């Protein structure tokens, strides 16, 4: 008999990168299987180089109780200069000589206190401003790097992890509430809020999804409704579509994902569905 572990993923911000690059870091409209399996592996204390074959065998489903609102975070990195202030100095033997030399070249003055100077260093790229002559830090000619990072705001999802081994699901549920590593929803700036492990129920993902009310949203509890869900299925299942997020390895030297198949469907919440017993 199969059992399903329900995992609650809710936070002010989430970000589930699909095709992210340095200058444009997108987010999927919902959590990916590779991200959720990585979350479980981190909770269990596994290293990135450890195998995840057992976790990857879990059947995966996601119910979008509150899809959230896409928001963009605009970043500019580098370029320009800023005045070199005394508090910018740091205790660093290796930079002491660079600071002394920069002062000599830029101002024609000697540091003066050599015993003190050897204990201080400064940020890299110190130069004299061509207009004012004041010492500045930064690069005068560097072009700013522009990045755009996308997030889902006020989203709440229910993940279903299905397996015949109930003991394995219990181990994952315990780890999610007592993680051995820090957990986040896609990015380190997106820690989860409240309870993650929301119970283990007998049955399949499609059945279990109908037995729980919608998660509370930003405006409070919500009942009823027909949220969208994406449930892993065999490739030959009618209406199944491919998704390239089946994890094989999280090793940074050779991160591998393969294709799995899923069905998109509406979930009708049963009139007898129970509410969540979670800590928000």
Poorly predicted regions: 89-93, 110-122
Q: How much of the polypeptide forms β-strand, as a percent range? A: 25-35%
Order of helices and strands: EEHHEEEHHEEEHEHEEE
What global shape is seen? globular
Sheet/helix structural class: alpha+beta
Largest sheet: 9 strands, mixed
Radius of gyration: 26 Å
Distance between the termini: 31 Å
Overall pLDDT score: 81
Please tally the helical runs, counting DSSP H or I stretches of 4 or more residues: 6
> How many β-strand runs?
12
Helix content: 10-25%
Protein architecture, described:
The chain is of the alpha+beta class and 280 residues long. It is built from 6 helices and 12 strands. It has helices at residues 33-43, 53-56, 93-107, 114-117, 166-177, 205-209; strands spanning 3-14, 24-25, 59-66, 69-77, 80-83, 126-128, 135-139, 145-163, 197-202, 228-232, 241-249, 256-266. Strands 1, 2, 3, 4, 8, 9, 10, 11 and 12 form a 9-stranded mixed beta sheet that branches. A 3-stranded antiparallel beta sheet has the order 5-7-6. It is globular and about 75 Å long. The protein starts with a strand and ends in a 14-residue tail after the last strand. The model is unreliable at 89-93 and 110-122 (pLDDT under 50).
